[in-house]
Design a protein that fits this description.
Blueprint: E1 29-31, E2 34-40, H1 56-71, H2 76-81, E3 86-96, E4 105-115, E5 119-128, E6 131-143, H3 154-160
Antiparallel strand pairs: 1-2, 2-4, 3-6, 4-5, 5-6
Amino acid sequence: MISVLTPSRLGLSPLSKRSMDVPTPYEGHFDGSRHLFAVRVYFEDTDFSGVVYHARYLHFMERARSDMLARVGINQRVVHDASQGAYAVTELNIKYRRPAKFDDALLVVSTVEAVRAASCDIHQTVMRGRDVLTEARVTAAFVSPDGKPRRQPAEWVAAFQPIINKPIS
């Protein structure tokens, strides 16, 4: 006889569609001008040696940047869908210091360093606890649908102002 596992056999309450809350995607948050975005390393993020493949850090940082923009009210999709343009990474300088491994809990810390008419500079650090694993400086330019630089929306420039990393005097 085959035993069927049911929620009640496992000591769990049966779930009903009406009582179940639908989970929402994770969102990062700000600590002052620093945007914090937690990431878990999955098996798919690692290479054959068991460490995070170098290009995966770019994925982690892209998610953090996109989330940071959304948290300050920048809706990239609306502008893209209206054929006004989108951000494109035009410069990236990255330094790998230590490897991350499967199941590590990482934190991507992003700070906006400068905002210009058509671009912004963002510093990003990937950390495991207090250890800095990777650091990057990213320049993202706002480009038209045909790929030419253009001024980013004035509302976006204004949205950046409260989070621009200002030197401590």
